[in-house]
Structures are given as C-alpha cells and as structure tokens.
Amino acid sequence: MGEVMGAIAQLRYNPFLEGDRISSLSSLQDQAQIGGIMSEITLNPDQLKEILKLAIVELIRDNRQEVSEFLAEIIEDVAMERAIAEGESTEQVSRESIFQLLEPHS
Predict the structure, then answer these.
(1) Which of 22, 36, 48, 49 is deepest in the core (most CB within 10 A)?
(2) What is the rounded distance in angstroms from the CA atom of residue 60 to the CA atom of residue 65?
C-alpha cells in the first residue's frame, strides 16, 4: 500500500509540458488493487487535490466535444439572463413596432 501512496503523492501535471504525462485514473485503481480487493487509501488534502485535477483534465481530454457544448450552453444561458434583465429595465414597445423592424424594406 505504501507503493500506491507514493505513486499518488508523486502525481503531477503541467499543461505546458509536451505529451501526455498524466497517469490515467484506471491505472491508479489497478495499482491500488491487492488480490482483487480494493484496499482503503487515506489521502491528505494535497493528494486529493492532485487526484481531482487529474480526473478533471482526463474528463476534458476524453470528452472535448461535450465539454465545449456544455460551456457554450452556459455562455448562452448567461447571455439570455442578461438580455432578459436588460429588457426588464427598458421601456416597453408594441408588438407591431417589433415586426415592422423585422420586415424587409423595399
């Protein structure tokens, strides 16, 4: 078990280094298994922080398209919320005036 703790404590990720230097979480799980039974591991806050960083980076790398779509939806939601708030603080206009602006001019 000391071997696993040493491996976890030494995990580091630097996004500015070339190549993939992140150990996958599954390999950490493989290292933690002893005789097919998962042993209990105690982590200090710094070790937990490193493991969470690894998990987040791996999630983003493996699901780049989904993460991009998720972030785009968040940006759209924030923009819509701001537009609604701005609309609530401005004077009201008639429906006809809106449709007149949308009509093509000849």
Answers:
(1) 22
(2) 9
At 16, list the tokens: 């500015």
Angle made by CA atoms 53, 45, 63, in degrees to the nearest 5 = 15
Q: How far is CA 12 from CA 15, 17, 57, in A?
A: 10, 11, 12
For the whole model, what pTM was predicted? 0.43
* CA dist., res. 20 & res. 72, Å (int): 26
Q: Are 22 and 14 a contacting pair, CB within 8 Å?
A: no
Name the β-bridge partners of 33.
38
Q: Residue 15 corresponds to which tokens in the numbers above?
A: 């996004």
Residue 28, H or E segment: helix 25-32
Q: What is the pLDDT of residues 53-67, one digit of tens each?
A: 999 999 999 999 999
